[in-house]
Write a structure and sequence with these properties.
about 300 residues; alpha+beta; Jelly Rolls; elongated
Length: about 300
Amino acid sequence: MKYIYLISSVLFCCFHSFAQSGIFFDEDQLSETAGTEIVSDASAYKGKALRRSSSAPAATFFYGPYTSYKAGYYLIQFRLKVSSNVSSSPICRLDVFSNEAGTSALNYLTITPSMFERSNEWKLFTLAVHIPQNVSDLEIRGMEFVPGICDLYFDYLHIMAPDVLTIGGSGDVAINSAVGIGTTDTKGHKLAVAGTALFTKVTVKALPWADYVFNSNYRLRPLSEVEQYIKQHNHLPEVPSAAEVEKNGISIGDNQATLLKKIEELTLYVIEQEKQIKRLSDENLELKQLRTEIDALKAVIQQIKK
C-alpha cells in the first residue's frame, strides 16, 4: 500500500487525464446537504456547479453516488475552486469510502484555499485509490466543510478505470492516457505541463543525430550564403524563428540535434579558417624571406655602383 500513498502525494496537486474511461459525475449525479446549492457558472462543466458558501454551516459538502467497482487501482479526480485562496486552514476533506472494503477511507485529501494558485479559478485534484475487493457501495465525499473561510465550489469528479492506470508488481505506474499537469489541453501530446518542472535527469532520444555533417559529401553553406539568410530571416538556417517558438514551443530532442549540427558546422568553418590563416601565415613568411633577399640584393647593387 505504501506506493499508493506515494502516487497520491505526487499526483494530487494538478494531475489530469483526458481518457474518459471510468465514470464521470457532476452535480446532477451527486447528493448535497443543506447549505450546498447548485449555481450557474459559465466556466463550469455544463455551466453548473455546486457551491457551499462561507456562511453555510459545518457539514458534508456532497456525497455519493454509491456505485459498483471491481477490485483494482483507480485515479479519482475532483475539479474545485475557491472564492479566496488566502487561507491555509483546512476547508474540506475529499475522501473515498466503502463499507464493504473496510471501516476507514480508502484514501483522502485535505483541501486548503492556499492550495489554489488563484482565487475563482478551477483546479484539478487527484487521488490514487486501491480498492482491495469488488464493492457495490463506493462513495465519494466532500466532508468536514469549515465555515467562515471562503466559498467552495465543486464542478465534477471523474473516476478513471484500470485501463487508464496500470501498476505493476514492482510498484511501477503506467498511465495509459494523455496527461496534463496544470492544464486541460495537451494539444495532442502524451504529457503537457503548464508551469515549471524539476528533473534530476532527462534522456531524450533524437534521430538522426548530426554527425552526418562530417561526411565528405555534406554541403557546408558558404558563410556569404549564411550571412544573406540571416539578413533576410533574422535567424540561422534550419533554426526556428522566435515567432515559431512562441507559437509552437520547441522539441528538446530536435533542438539539441539542430544545435549540435550548428556547432559541428561552426567547427568546420573554424577548421577551414585555420587552414586559411596557416596558408596566409606561410605566404607572409615567404614574402618576408623574399623581401630580405631583395634587400640583400639591393645592398650588393649599391656596393657595385660605388
